[in-house]
Amino acid sequence: MDLRPGPVNAAESAVALAAAFTEAYRRAPEGVWHAPGRINVIGEHTDYNDGLVLPFALPLGVSVAAARRDDAVLEVRSLQAADAAVTVSLDGTGPDQVRRWAGRERWAAYPFGVASLLRAHGAGGASLLIDSDLPQGAGLSSSAALECATALALCDLYGLDDLAADRPALARLAQRAENDYAGMPCGIMDQSAALLCTAGHALMLDCRSGLSSQVPLDLPGKGLALLVVNTRARHELTGGEYAARRADCERAAALLGVEALRDVKDLGGALARLDDPVLRRRTQHVVTENHRVEAAAGLMRAGAEAELGGMLTASHLSLRDLYEVSWPEADLAVETALKAGARGGRMIGGGFGGSVIVLAAADRAPRVREAITTAYTDRNLPTPEFLNAVPSAAAHRRLPR
Ligand code: GLA
User: Fold this and answer.
1) Is the Cβ–Cβ distance between 206 and 52 less than 8 Å?
2) At 228, is the secondary structure helix, strand, or coil?
3) Fewer CB within 10 Å, N or C, the chain?
């Protein structure tokens, strides 16, 4: 899927999706819902350690046109994969079976997982047509956007108003769909970003308590630009590395006698107690990253956004050297950006492919962008793609308005 320059005209694309639904299913949809992708300012691999994250929603995302069916069947099609229609009964198709879906059916595990879990709340079957302007595998949470747009659609269609209004609960349901049906043991950050963010703000989320607050983020107002660089090295998180990092953290927490690495207060003491150098590195990343999130939120609240650069770069080095989830194209983008005068930058998301964010003075951003493109071209890497990161709204209904 190609990255389209955003933001797209939301109203027009919702109308076009509704028309495409009518053509595909020979009946009109009952509505169109949208959920955004996200970037994460800082707080990587902290969510499943009960820690802190600071993401914001992108203007790009996933839209779902939907109509109820009078049986318990989920029918899903996507404008991005016209040949991959999937029709499955919600009754008698369990998570174990869905996790084994391969090839063209695989993407349907996300909406199917959500629809299955919503059965217990009273939702039934539906026909869905999905459209996305988020690149997949770019670490911008296209899966969470798909889950959350589907969840909101089904809640609205089946009158599950209490659940739709309880967005933290809906985020947990979407996360469970991804864990159980897609087999990806993700934390709660991406689904929370898709459902809780507000325009013009980043979301400070405590992943243990579920408490969140909105932190204003106006970079252009401060003469700054945040570039999102899709390195075009695709990430595939259902692979073992993500689960392996989670297991490392759980092992370290158990050895230290704490519930989660979030609870480590004395880092020096904890490192002295861990014999395994790998577990020491993982612990050091998680503990320091939580402090960086607090510091970054503090800088943002103080209106000192330019100082975030140092935090971003420190996070990247920690993810590269201690957590070991960075990848060569990300390191190249960050190093090149710094040399070209950016204030800081880091990989975002789970790692092993995906995107990087770079903070730069607005008047320097074109030079930074050019330097990254040249560095990639010089090494025969695919041309990176740049997105403008504007803090945008969470999931919502787009039609009828
Ligand atoms: C992926 C997961 C999130 C989070 C990040 C790393 O995006 O889905 O839950 O763990 O990786 O911060």
Assistant:
1) yes
2) strand
3) C
Does residue 4 lie in a domain region? Answer: no
Question: Nearest residue CA, atom 9 of ligand 1?
Answer: 187
User: What is the position in ligand 1's atom list of the atom closest to the CA of 350?
Assistant: 11
Name the closest-CA residue to atom 8, ligand 1.
186
Q: Is residue 189 helix, strand or coil?
A: helix
Q: Model confidence over 126-165: pLDDT tens digits?
A: 999 999 999 888 999 999 999 999 999 999 999 999 999 9
Residue 291 burial by Cβ neighbours in a 10 Å radius (0-12, 13-18, 19+): middle
CATH label of the domain that carries residue 274:
3.30.70.890
- CA dihedral angle for residue 348, residue 350, residue 352, residue 357, rounded to 10 degrees: 0
- Closest-CA residue, ligand 1 atom 11, reads 350
- Cα 313 to Cα 78, 127, 248, 300: the distances in Å are 37, 45, 24, 16
Nearest Cα to 125, choosing from 178, 162, 86? 86
Between helix 189-196 and helix 167-181 the angle, nearest 10°, is: 140
Specify whether 206 is located in the same domain as 258.
no
Burial 71-108 (b: 16+ CB within 10 A, else e): ebbbbbbbbbbeeeebebebeeeebeebbebeeebbbb
Same domain? For 115 and 252 the reply is no
List of residues 6+ apart from 165 with CB closer than 8 A = none
Question: Structural domain tally of the chain?
Answer: 2
Q: Is 176 inside any structural domain?
A: yes
Q: Using the mean position of ligand 1's atoms as its centre, give its distance from the Cα of residue 38 in Å.
A: 11
Find the length of the chain: 401
Residue 202 predicted with pLDDT over 70: yes
Cα 20 off chain centre by: 27
End-to-end CA distance of the chain: 28
197 pLDDT band, cuts 50/70/90, is very high
Under a CB-based contact definition with an 8 Å cutoff, are residues 337 and 304 in contact?
no
33 and 112 co-located in one domain: yes
